[in-house]
Amino acid sequence: MKAGLEIHQQLNVPGKLFCSCPSDAHAAKVDAQFVRRLRAVRSEVGRVDAAALFEEHRGREFVYQVSNSSSCLVEMDEEPPHRLNEEALDVALMVSQLLGCKPVDEVQVMRKLVIDGSNTSGFQRTALIATDGALEVDGKTVRVSTVCLEEDAAKLVAQDAERGVVTYSLERLGVPLVEISTMPDITGPEEAEKVAAAIGGILRRTRRVKRGLGSIRQDVNVSADGGARVEVKGVQLLSLVGKVIESETRRQSGLIQLRDKLRSHPGKFLADKPVNLGELFASTKSKIVRSTLAAGQSVLGVRVIGFRGVFGFQLGENRRFGTELADYARQLAGVGGLLHSDELPAYGISQDEVKAVKEVLGCLDDDGFIIILGQTTRASAAFEIVLERCRRAFDGPLEETRAALADGSTRFLRPMPGAERMYPETDVPYVEITGKRLGDVRSKIPPPLESLMDTLVKAGVSGELARQAVNSDWVDVIEKSVAADPASAQLACGLLVQDVKELARDGVDPDQITDEDALKLVLEATSRRMSRDQAKHALSAMAKEGKSVSAAMSDSVSEDELQKVLDEIIEANVDLVLRRGEDAVKPLMGDVMKRLRGKVSGAWVSEALSEKIKRKIRDSDKA
């Protein structure tokens, strides 16, 4: 197999790519909404892009939610775009230089036709910044084909498949993204993850990229030996890159095996016309079939000659050819129910009903059948699509765009787009890239992250924690905190590398904390000699309750206050302490936590109380 990556990273710069709306806004409320329908148009060369045509045929309606604090008429496509964000362009040029790419002489913004609703205008604006770079990974050179600057898409809020309505929010639309595309030089899943990590390190080195889930995503282009190029969109986590490549390679290998199996039996692909099976299932116990008929929808079936065992052909873990067909029916025709002969009886459909279906459809021993449930027009359209995909099974894997799923598997998303969807953006002026500008950008490239790691180790941070720190989303905050106060190094790394993960596991979203607030918290906690547990408690209050740094810190108990409370409670219960020793920690914990009203973590109280009790017992023994 071979693979290439497309890394998309949001840039941390003021303003969006084509307006001055904040690029870090989170919409607090919906101030307005509007509705659009989008359609494909011919390109400048007179052709319609296949992916755009696919989206138009889905006939969906798009609802856009607007917040006045995060979007304007540019995002609504009611005002032309402003000039290209110069800071975002400089960051993209910096990334290009770090990758050894050749910058273009003049940046020309292009329109890329996208009518899945993620852009109100029906296209995404993108600009080529540089080409022909490379990076070294484990002694191997991986070529970088392009670095582009583009606007992020709108945020998906909800989908109603039955009504064909999709809702988007506009706060993310227009946020600057840098896109790095590699050549298909990657030959294994582990190598792909290392390449993605190396690119991520280069992006973090700029200190101008956003953090948090959704700020970076990987698209993976994969082709198995003898297969076809497939683009897998939306791989959110680095740890999923390898799994996606493994899963997609297995899927394509399975389709190649299926192709060879089909070709070993000479003959033309044949299928009958769909038959209405509503009367046959009139008294069925199957809930899915009953609900379909009760809604006035259809249950249609068709015989596929010679396809016995083909629908159940295994393409990978938890994926059969029938799963592929269901994806096509769902995406292309909006039909959610597809059943086939290789999985029945199941879903409440009895063996007698399966036998009756075969009789009605005229199935012979080697034949298979498909049942589609849904609104009659959609079900009929789904059959055309599904049967065409069955016919194309004789060709093996198809070039297409697929979506990454949480377990690393993929599903059909849309046909592969072509060059027909690109054309110039006439509303944004060209930007000349001069030698002086490149020199200025080069002079502002921050030092390698390894230098920060050395600084952290010198400040007392362990080597492993320092390595995790420079590879974390919080590297900018950690670097600024150490520059402002070297004594903050251990607290900054422990809090922002380790504790935020623990808080996330407890349901606290660290992405709710801005870099500015995190930095302020670390520096103030350091100056006030607060413990790491106190800082963690304050961070949790900021994320969960939306408290300011000062309010969260005022709610935190100081070391002196904690020691005073512990002394008072131990003295009030001295007989219990002397009688039970360290076993007195548990009954006294409740008294301490009640006094402190949840302002401090239980782990910190337990440790401090245990130490206090030990000291009390030692003092008592001496006396």
Reported for the largest beta sheet, the result is: 11 strands, mixed
Averaged pLDDT, please? Answer: 90
Helix content estimate: 40-55%
Derived from helix and strand composition plus strand pairing, the structural class reads alpha+beta
Number of separate domains:
4
H/I helix tally: 20
Intertermini distance = 77 Å
Low-confidence stretches: none
Radius of gyration: 30 Å
What is the strand content? 15-25%
Structure description:
It is a single chain. By secondary structure, the protein is an alpha+beta fold. It folds into 4 domains: 2-229, no CATH class; 275-394, Gyrase A, domain 2; 449-554, no CATH class; 559-622. Helices cover 41% and strands 21% of the residues. The radius of gyration is 30 Å and the shape is globular. It starts with a strand and ends with a helix.
